[in-house]
Amino acid sequence: MTAKIHKTNAARLLDRAKIPYELIPYEVDENNLAASHVAERLGENIAEVFKTLVLRGDRMGLFVCVIPGDREIDLKRAARVSGNKSAEMIHVRELLPLTGYIRGGCSPLGMKKAYPVFIHESCRNAERIFISAGMRGLQIRLRPDDLIRAAGATVAPLTK
User: Fold this and answer.
1) Which pLDDT tens digit goes with each residue over 57-67?
2) For the chain, what percentages of helix, strand and coil (3-state, to nearest 5) are there?
């Protein structure tokens, strides 16, 4: 018997927008929250398992970057595409109060406040991608264009 999967804020947002998606559970390892580990648990290509990063720009404030799990954010590029001169990752202790999400379960959808969202251009290379559903142990699989529409995201080069 499988456990019931509870809808998250991110899933409810997609439901309201009538956007098709799948909720995909995976076994969490609290000692390894890396996207590579999530991809391994899902048995999926790491380039299609995207991670959500929250940054603070010097001019525009908070913004969100969604990048492939095997890539590192380029802070200069992220700052430039977001209208900032510089940007830095927020501290992990700020994540929950600012977004409503915890590390390893941060979704670009359904945050406490609507921040600008930027998604890595490689999302267009996949038919479907994975993002956090807003809790550890649950991913959303959906079409990149549907995520872009739901998040009001801008597609941009964000990595080195």
Assistant:
1) 999 999 999 99
2) 30, 30, 40
